[in-house]
Design a protein that fits this description.
Structural class: alpha/beta
Oligomer: single chain
Helix content: 40-55%
Strand order of the largest sheet: 1-2-3-5-4-6-7-8-9
Order of helices and strands: EHHHEEEHEHEHEHHHHHHHEHEHH
Strand content: 5-15%
Length: 392
């Protein structure tokens, strides 16, 4: 028998906030490598400025209050206390949606997206399109972490979150949305339980990343494979260390908030559609709310585990097993990998919507919440009649 969810309020102790500020004041910085700023990773001068702001001006209590304004819960599930947001839709028949973040993200990514999904009428939309959003902190991430708990790869996360939707919340059928690891997890749920899935919406495609996967590529496929070669050479160092020595890396990032910030903000800058100015697309306070959650929960080591599991196990989307649920893809122009539709259709056999977005990158929910919400609601609208949803 599954225990019922318990309401949750985030309240970091005052002494933990004071300790963070003291550690930030004692930050030690490396020298700046020669060459252009950011050429070899996070720029020293930029990080100094961010750390100063984090210590002197960032208001954690305001960030905490933003999260606490949404209904949050914890429930014992799969050997952990799983944290999730459960925000009812404001409309005549809201569809349930499981919304999944990735690394180095958290539920803070979704604060501008969720109201556009649950209350579209407040943004000029149709209340008939409203969704009820379930947004978990992934197992091992943020508020779904405590020291010593079991580690989760994609397959285990998919099983856990399916149980959240069905056994805990009672939804027989539901929609899915994900980017980054969230795209892997939601795709795995669709593979394992297609009968439960109303529709699968992705803003990253979790296809195998093998430049030799196509023997006679089209021009579009060849261009993608060349871009993939560059990505695998220049942009995957973090995957190798997180996927092979996660414990060693966790020491430094758990002990140094400046180090943690450097590790995470480099990805916000590199993967967003910011033209080199990350604050032009992701607000500084939103970045720091996300980083602070990693810091206060001490979850960074556990958050690496999906990388380790992927490097030491099979690809999370099994070969020879097509995903046959209705699928949509929002193709943001600076997403880290952008496979063409011809390759996506080898895995996703029922693509109903393929949207080429004008601007935006890997962190679509933070960068372009309005565009992402519109694309998702447009996709789900024609699927409602046959959804047959139920639940609490």
């Amino acid at each position: 028998m599954t225990s019922p969810p318990a309401p949750f309020t985030l309240q970091v102790p005052d002494d933990a906030v004071a300790d963070l500020r003291e550690r930030l004041a004692r930050s030690r910085y490396p020298d700046q490598a020669p060459g252009a700023p950011w050429a070899y990773g996070t720029d020293v001068a930029w990080l100094r400025s961010l750390v100063d702001y984090w210590r002197e001006d960032f208001d954690w209590r305001a960030a905490e209050a933003e999260l606490n304004a949404l209904p949050q819960y914890k429930v014992p599930l799969a050997g952990i206390d799983l944290h999730f947001l459960h925000v009812p839709g404001k409309g005549p028949a809201p569809l349930p949606l499981l919304l999944c973040h990735g690394w180095p993200g958290s539920v803070y990514e979704f604060l501008e997206l969720i109201p556009r999904l649950t209350d579209p009428a407040s943004f000029g939309g149709d209340p008939a399109n409203a969704l009820t959003v379930v947004a978990p902190s992934l197992p091992g991430y943020g508020l779904s972490f405590r020291p010593g708990q079991p580690r989760f790869g994609v397959e285990e996360m998919a099983t856990c979150l399916t149980a959240l939707m069905t056994e805990v919340l009672g939804y027989e059928r539901f929609a899915l949305q994900g980017g980054d690891w969230g795209s892997f997890i939601t795709s795995r749920i669709a593979f394992d339980h297609p009968e439960r899935v109303i529709g699968l919406h992705l803003n990253m495609l979790p296809l195998r990343r093998d430049p030799k996967m196509v023997t006679d590529p089209t021009a579009e496929e060849a261009a993608y494979l060349e871009a993939l070669k560059y990505f695998l050479k220049e942009e995957t160092g973090y995957q190798w260390i997180q996927g092979t020595r996660p414990q060693t890396l966790a020491f430094g990032l758990t002990d140094s908030p400046a180090g943690l910030a450097a590790w995470i903000v480099e990805k916000f800058r590199a993967w967003s559609d910011c033209g080199g100015d990350v604050e032009s697309t992701i607000a500084k306070d939103r970045m720091l709310a996300n980083i602070s959650l990693y810091w206060f929960t001490g979850c960074i080591g556990a958050s690496f585990w999906p990388y380790y599991a992927r490097m030491h196990g099979p690809w999370p989307i099994p070969d020879g097993g097509p995903i046959a649920v209705p699928t949509a893809y929002a193709a943001f122009p600076t997403e880290i990998v952008r496979p063409p539709r011809s390759l996506a259709e080898r895995t996703y056999t029922d693509i109903r919507q393929w949207s080429v977005m004008k601007t935006g990158g890997h962190f679509a929910a933070m960068e372009q919440p309005e565009a992402l919400a519109r694309d998702l609601l447009d996709f789900l609208r024609p699927l409602r009649e046959r959804s047959g949803t139920g639940g609490s």
